Amino acid sequence: MSNNISIRHAVKRYGDNTVIPDLSLEVKQGEFFTLLGPSGCGKTTLLRMIAGFNSIEGGDFYFGDNRINDLNPSKRNIGMVFQNYAIFPHLTVRKNVEFGLKYKKLSKEQITKRGEEFMKLMQIDEFADRLPDRLSGGQQQRVALARALCIEPDVLLMDEPLSNLDAKLRVEMRTVIKNLQHNINITTVYVTHDQEEAMAISDRIAVMNAGVIQHVGTPKNIYQRPANLFVSTFIGQSNLLDGRLLVRDGRTYIETAAGYRAEIKGVKEDCRTEREIILSVRPEEFILDVDATEGIEAVVNDCVFLGLNTHYFVTLSSGEEAVIIQESSIDSIIEPGTKIRLTINTEKLNIFDRETEKNLLNGVVNDLPED
Fold first, then answer.
1. Mean pLDDT over residues 117-140, rounded?
2. Over the stretch 51-108, which tens digit does the pLDDT of each residue have?
3. Rounded to 5 degrees, what are φ and ψ at 234?
4. What is the DSSP string of 142-176?
5. Reduced to 3 states, what is the DSSP secondary structure of residue 184?
6. What are phi and psi of 370, to 5 degrees?
7. What angle do CA 132, 135, 136 make, to 5 degrees?
8. Which element (helix H / strand E) includes 12?
């Protein structure tokens, strides 16, 4: 039976160094939940606290209604998949998959039956009698997944499980993992620093930085309305422009350092005061025009044709650099040195207070638990 996970005011210290100062989180039953952040942000540390491999210096951890702080890892009924697979090199695929079942007080027939079931589920049954050194990286990861799931855990924990695979295989395996989790409906906590991977597989994502959760939400919510400037720059690519929020006759406007002004709707009621801001513009939300006389003046420095899209690297009249992604033209691309004009799709623009770095727009959905 899959469990929800509740973490309340978790603290992790290594000597005088506090890695996680005060973290609360709710993972729903059956959810695919990803901890995402740069190296050293505390995501693996938190995962290991859930698993019982790291001590807990403060706070409470629950699987359902069961407080697990002092519960031995072997008693938590978790499945764990590691970055380096951690499968036994001297055991066959079958013996690896069945390994955890020896502690479940099952008969030999039950162990064999369940092992066969999960080898077929992971499509590795034809390799049952092979040793791991005769398998590819993707096949070894399937063995690790089958072994973790064979014991029918309440929670599946995965620590950067695809980082050792090549790019093509990573895409293939993340589809396998997502489909598997959906079919089994097991509560899963997945750690990665790869934001594309997190966006592709997660029901919800927690973006972490320096041991603090910055934003919890669906991939769509986090991408479209990031809670703060860090999340905006970490999830996807974003151009950051200096600007100012203006209020005129009850309407709000953004004005860039390059002198471009446009009305902006959706600013929070209590934020409608003039202030210095940072504009976050996704590369695809610039509207590029060679012949226009209005908009931000810019010069194309370089361009990269990537088939469906072309990436333009430009310098704005303010001296700021920007990247623009446009659908590739059937006729030609814009050559370096060309002067262009840019406008911004203000519906998808995000603006942040320069001092607090918080998003000033309505529509930010942040699922952080309330105290």
1. 92
2. 999 999 999 999 999 999 999 998 999 999 988 878 899 999 999 999 989 888 889 9
3. -85, -35
4. HHHHHHHHHT--SEEEEESTTTTS-HHHHHHHHHH
5. helix
6. -85, 145
7. 130
8. strand 5-14
Indicate the fold that domain 237-353 takes in CATH: OB fold (Dihydrolipoamide Acetyltransferase, E2P) (2.40.50)
CA contacts within 13 A on the Cβ side of 216: 16
CATH number of the structural domain 5-223: 3.40.50.300
Domain residues of the chain, as ranges?
A: 5-223, 237-353
Burial, 83: exposed, middle or buried (Cβ in 10 Å; 0-12, 13-18, 19+)? middle
Kindly report, residue by residue over 176-220, the tens digit of the pLDDT: 899 889 888 999 999 999 999 999 999 999 999 999 999 999 999
Residue 119, both tokens = 């080898």
Rounded to the nearest angstrom, the gap between the alpha carbon of residue 366 and the centroid of all alpha carbons in its chain is: 14
Residue 348 has pLDDT above 70, yes or no: yes
Q: List, in sequence order, the alpha helices (H) in the chain.
A: 43-51, 93-98, 108-121, 137-150, 167-184, 195-201, 219-224, 229-234
With H, G, I as helix, E, B as strand and everything else as coil, classify residue 100: helix
Angstrom distance (rounded) from CA 222 to CA 34: 13
pTM listed for this prediction: 0.92
